[in-house]
Specification:
It contains nine helices and four strands; from the N terminus they run βαβαααααααββα. It is an alpha+beta fold. The protein has a single domain, classed as Glutaredoxin (3-Layer(aba) Sandwich), CATH 3.40.30.10.
Length: 199
Amino acid sequence: MNPIEFWFDFSSGYAFFAAQRIEALAAELGRTVLWRPYMLGAAFSVTGARGLSSTPLKRDYAQRDWARIARQRGLTFRPPADHPHVALAATRAFYWIEAQSPDAATAFAQRVFDLYFSDRLDTASPEAVSRLGPEVGLEPEALLAGIADPALKETVRKIGEDAVARGIFGSPFFLVDDEPFWGWDRMEMMAEWIRTGGW
């Protein structure tokens, strides 16, 4: 069966919560997960939208909602004071790692979320991101060189553009059997869609 495509920006609070649940949910449904970080700014440039953290009223609500979800689920949620970061370094690192080992890339993505939302990782810094290399069996120097590879940079840019061309515009955003679901709060609906074959 087709995997659940999990599209996200590493700086998305709701994507953090989705990342805590998606693997277990997919296992319950007999599916795998295709983790797909991308730069949400690529979608904003098309939709004209702005991130929650830079939108008055929505920003205040989102901060309250994130804290509420974290308390309910017993999760640490402490984004950096200068949140959101432009997580380009982490996104490029993911795809470089994926080319070596998809399983390592998934573990890396989960670690990035955990560290960024506990205010212990600058996802915009190639040097900071590269220090996670040993946690997934890679040398920091190799990961740093991968992040800087011009071919990889072009690949990551194209992934973002292709995502938007497919109608992906938010974070988290899920595609399952070509059916789109936008938002952390659509995960249970997505699960029911898979269980029933849709409606």
